[in-house]
Write a sequence for this structure.
């Protein structure tokens, strides 16, 4: 009965437009009162500070800043031009260009929404002009945007690492193979669709022009290489790599002639807003996690699920369903904050690896944003391109089925995720 007033209060706050981080914090405080644990609230500030005072989480605002600078500094055009030179000559070439651009963007910003918006504004009109339907152009844009947070650097992985006190470097390295597999699967799906619907072949770019564009895009393409190689070979921590990424982003902007004080100021403002919203959310989650630990909620949940038969592969399937649905309805940081502290410790207690679970959860949440009826990436692409939402959703269905197949392979083949972290010495 004590839970009912808390649920009513939380629903009233949510309907009233309260910030979700405030809602989580308020509900957690009330839960301390309901559970007669108010004496433990004196330690809550210390728990909040301990939860966010992590060296690895310092990399998050730096990676956000690097992505913001690069998005404003001419990097986008250089990457798209290179992708056009490499892939446009193939049948359905602009679809391949769209996917390859998302792979390039993944190493720059690591944001699916930024990827979807940028590509919708540039490649969707180009695809439509070349004879593709606007629905298909929007579909391949939305589907490929999920690659962004899978291939490092990834803000989502940093957030997960902070929640579970897991190595961000290991998560970054673990995302490389799944990201490549996802990209290859999308290339295959686009090639099949191109032959089925007779999509056009683009103009063949001379070898000299390909080389010129590759050299021009070098400042942009070399940044992910520097970041990943530095982390893999132990030269830099993720936080140090994030600082290097910011310096490289500024240098790239200077090379492309689009760096200015206005660019830096706007990038800093956007970084402060995004970082602040994430940190306040982490603070609210810290209080909830503190109470969950006192009440032994993960252990009770694990026992209940085992009693219902949800263990092993069945629990992994349940985890996939929960996070896929959460990705459809909630913002990714919110879904992580609400569900990871409860469900991931349960999976670990059943023998799952936290690095593997982290990658599976990231992929699930990303597929949620391209799954109707509330797929956020579909909404962004529809708004930017002007294509009808349900037309894009229908055209994206074949890509989504392929991506769900990749998700299942990653879920039940942990070695695909853990191979590189184990090789680099991050996993035993």
């Amino acid at each position: 009965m004590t839970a009912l007033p808390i649920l009513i209060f939380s629903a009233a706050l949510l309907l009233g437009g309260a910030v979700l981080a405030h809602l989580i914090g308020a509900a957690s405080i009330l839960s301390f009162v309901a559970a007669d644990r108010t004496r433990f609230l004196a330690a809550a500030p210390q728990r909040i500070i301990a939860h966010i005072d992590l060296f690895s989480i310092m990399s998050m605002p730096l990676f956000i800043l690097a992505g913001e600078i690069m998005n404003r500094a001419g990097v986008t055009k250089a990457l798209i031009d290179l992708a056009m030179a490499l892939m446009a000559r193939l049948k359905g070439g602009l679809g391949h260009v769209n996917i390859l651009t998302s792979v390039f963007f993944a190493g720059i910003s690591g944001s699916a929404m930024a990827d979807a918006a940028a590509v919708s504004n540039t490649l969707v009109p180009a695809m439509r002009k070349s004879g593709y339907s606007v629905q298909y152009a929007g579909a391949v844009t939305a589907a490929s945007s999920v690659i962004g947070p899978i291939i490092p650097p990834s803000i989502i992985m940093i957030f997960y690492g902070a929640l579970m006190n897991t190595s961000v470097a290991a998560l970054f390295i673990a995302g490389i193979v799944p990201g490549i597999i996802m990209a290859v699967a999308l290339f295959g799906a686009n090639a099949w669709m191109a032959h089925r619907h007779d999509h056009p072949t683009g103009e063949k770019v001379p070898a000299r022009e390909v080389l010129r564009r590759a050299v021009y895009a070098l400042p942009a393409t070399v940044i992910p290489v520097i970041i990943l190689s530095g982390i893999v070979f132990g030269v830099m921590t993720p936080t140090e790599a994030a600082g290097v990424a910011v310096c490289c982003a500024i240098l790239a902007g200077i090379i492309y002639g689009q760096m200015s004080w206005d660019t830096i100021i706007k990038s800093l403002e956007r970084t402060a807003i995004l970082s602040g919203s994430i940190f306040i959310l982490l603070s609210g989650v810290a209080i909830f996690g503190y109470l969950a630990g006192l009440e032994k909620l993960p252990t009770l949940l694990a026992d209940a699920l085992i009693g219902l038969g949800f263990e092993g592969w069945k629990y992994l399937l349940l985890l996939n369903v929960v996070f896929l649905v959460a990705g459809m309805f909630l913002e990714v940081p919110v879904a992580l904050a609400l569900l990871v502290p409860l469900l991931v410790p349960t999976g670990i207690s059943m023998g799952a690896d936290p690095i593997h679970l982290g990658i599976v959860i990231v992929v699930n949440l990303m597929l949620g944003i391209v799954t109707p009826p509330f797929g956020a990436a579909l909404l962004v692409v529809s708004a930017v391109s002007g294509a009808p939402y349900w037309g894009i959703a229908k055209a994206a269905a074949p890509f989504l089925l392929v991506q769900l197949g990749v998700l299942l392979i990653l879920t039940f083949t942990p070695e695909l995720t853990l191979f590189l972290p184990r090789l680099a010495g991050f996993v035993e």
User: Anything to note?
Assistant: The longest helix spans residues 261-295. The chain has one domain: 42-423. Residues 42-423 form one domain.
